[in-house]
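Internal tracking record. Fields below are filled automatically when a chain is submitted to the structure queue. Please do not edit lines marked as system-generated. If the sequence contains nonstandard residues, flag them in the REMARKS field before resubmitting.
Queue: standard
Priority: normal
Entity type: single polypeptide chain
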Amino acid sequence: MYGSVKRSFQERWYHLFPWLEYSIERDCVYCFPCRFFGVNTDRCLSYQGYSDWKHALGKIGTLTTHDSSVKHKEATLTWKQYQSTIAHDTSIANQLERGRLKTIQENREYVKYILEVILLCAQQGIALRGHREVNDSEKSTNIGNFLSLVQLHSRHIDLLRERLETGPKNASLLGHHYQNSMLSVLAESVLEYIISEVKSARYYTIIVDETKDVSKKEQLTLVLRYVLEGVVYERFVSYTYCEELNAAALTSYIYKALDSVHLDIQECVSQCYDGASVMSGAYSGVKARIQQDNPRAIYIHCHAHQLNLALVDSCRSLSHASDFFSLIESLYVFISSSVPHSLFLTKQKELGQKEITLVKLSDTRWSCRHASIKAIKTTLPALLATLEDIADESGSRAIESRGLLHQAHSFPFILSLILFEKIFSVTGNLSNLLQAEQLNYAGAAACIRATKQTLQNLRSEEKWLEIWKETVELGTKLNIAVSPIRCRRRQRLPSHLSNCTVEGPTGVTNTISEYRTLAYYATIDTLLDEMNKRFNELNLTLLQSLQALVPTSDNFLDLASLHPFLSHYSIDKDGLASELSVATTLLKETSPLSTLHHVYSHLYQVKECFPHLLQVLQIAMTIGVTSASAERSFSSLKRLKTHLRSTMSQERLNNVSLLHIERDLSNKLWHNLDDIVLKFADAHKNSRVTLK
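SYSTEM-GENERATED OUTPUT FOLLOWS
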């Protein structure tokens, strides 16, 4: 005690004795250098601690005398030397460690440069390898895009240039095995992201199709459709080489692909394929086999395929339509040859038209008919002029041109041209809508009904007269007079029926009525009939109940209407009933909603209040509509596996395809290449290049 005040440690002592350290818990001081660097020093300040504040300072104070002691000065000197060693890092061990860390950092940067080139090539669909992969332009004139880009980078990056010029050849990481490994690590990162999203979404749809690649191998593509936070995604997963094409084998390929990414088939809510019997067979098809394991996975016949089949079948069943499209195909073949095509382009220039080439017809390309008709209608004056010029020549080409000109320069042809252009513009819009990734089943059903109603509205006298007027005006410009429609030759009655009255077709004298009945109405009626047959599944009770989720329907959020859907997917009806009443009131207070997606987005903001209803909406949005995403993956397959890359391995094909098709996800890898390098290091722990 000093008077009435208790003595204690003073903060200013730190300035008097920089070596001092104070323990609040024990209320005593220590000498830092003596504790850690001293030999035979004062035990009080080194181990026990000093707290006699009364005798701490002064000429004979403990702290003062300790500061001037020999042992303390030796300990302080050792401490300062240690600090200097750490600051300048002069020890051999530290220098070796620093060198090792520097080498690792340089190796990682080197691998990042290589990864950047590989990722760029994969995203752009560029082949990596060349004719002879030798990193020496004198030994090979075509070392490939990968090595060429690496050499280009080395001109501007010192580290890369030094490695290529002076580094060990067996540690360059430029060989095709390392290319495959890096592609695998990059693709796995994308696939992991996709599967993590699918598992977060829980429910998914499998979209499957198969095609033959350039090496004549059957490739089965697997696409997953899922809904995450109200957004619909359709993601490519893999190609599978199919050695067999029967239903059992295809089913096993699908299961194997799902097992490889650890997805449970029980969470699959629908399966979407084309109409091939091996896929859609009711008893032993792929869809039936999957439904044996998961009855909830309903089968959806790709709507885009169904629409295309309706168009193909309706055109084949009508003689005038079949003749019209046969003529269009003949015109395409004739004009596509070198001499007529050159003349055709010249005629377009002379008439001041933009150069347009004709489009080939195909039963499997969904939009080719409308595009082909539109091209011929736009270039018809130049087309007829080309045929006329060639017809004036001699030889087989001239003979063929005269025949085509005779058929194309006719009133039935230009009427069919305008008629089918009008009809296919309507169905073309539907085809484009059906291929949209965000479209759900209820929305697709609404689009189909609207299209059928639009076609039905075309079947009127008013619309017919508009088409007739346009045809007559076009005929006048092209000097084509109105002529009767070609009818079948009337059959001559047998002699034994000469005295009998036989009912049969009579010649129609009214040309307008003749075209209207036999061409216009017949085409629309046949197409509507085909669409009704193809889309009959829209009447199924389960799928019809989806309309109760569309805000514009009369039974919106009606529990009874949703009953088939709820029973099929085992959704708690009691829990949903209370949510429906609240949701109905809530949605009435908001701005008018028109789609299922709008309902989901609005309710997702208060998702804790509507777990069952959001589950219903999510499943409804997850149900597939078309296999368009699978078809689009085939377009990528054609770009990636060309005749020059026909020997590409299946694993490499899948890795490149993932990075190329799912480019929005692979773009994220550019910001995470450090993590990719570490994954590559884990996969190559015995590599000559140290990365960890």
